[in-house]
Amino acid sequence: MTGDANVRRAVIVPSLLFVILVWAFSNAPVGDAIWLNLPPTGTKCVSEEIQSNVVVLADYVVVSEDHGHIPTISVKVTSPYANNLHLRENVTHGQFAFTTQEAGNYLACFWLESHNHGGGEVSVNIDWKTGIAAKDWESVARKEKIEGVELELRKLEGAVEAIHENLLYLKSREAEMRIVSETTNGRVAWFSIMSLGICITVSGLQVWYLKRFFQKKKLI
User: What does pTM read for this prediction?
Assistant: First the structure.
């Protein structure tokens, strides 16, 4: 009986680990396909909050029902500190790729060129990928000569690392927010004490002034 239990345990534990890895990979950051309808005038933007040292890859293409005339657009991608990461004008498609240098909100804005105004809305398809989803696994497989199960295990390893880094990022953000909250609470407490002290001081001065005033008038 003990031998059978050990055999079952030896089979169940790796199976559970595999299920957990598959779940982690399925919940890892993946690419998002986004559709934007650009108005004749104005700008539309998409943004994502990304931590530092993360690879970002995106393809965009203008989709028009009139295949004889495809409108052109302008694209601008900026970092959380408003640094230009990608700028293209008068294009119908393109790609941008970069590695984030700072954590924060990365913004990609699209607008129609001026000579296309008056033609109605234009659709833009954006394939936005970050982290593990932006990695070129075909190149990795060719370079390291791996395939099949080994390649899938490498993908799972990358997904687990991405999740671990994301958890560390969330932990650091939570610590930052806690520090900000504690600092704000301390400032509010000191402000309340100062306000109370000022109110007491002003009230005391008013009582002293009124007392002197009445004494001079010989009312008391």
Answer: 0.60
Burial class (CB in 10 A: 0-12, 13-18, 19+), 177: exposed
pLDDT tens digit string along 24-82? Answer: 444 444 456 788 888 888 889 999 988 888 889 899 999 877 666 788 899 999 999 98
Give the residues across from 105 on adjacent strands.
Answer: 49
Which of 173, 152, 144, 71 is closest to 113 using CA atoms? 71
Name the region of 48 (left: φ>0; alpha: ψ -120 to 50; beta: rest): beta
Residue 98: strand, helix, or coil:
strand
- Closest listed residue to residue 85, CA positions, set 65, 106, 105, 68: 106
- Residue 10: which H helix or E strand, with range? helix 2-26
CA–CA separation, 65 vs 69, rounded Å? 9
Look up residue 94 and give its two tokens: 């393109």
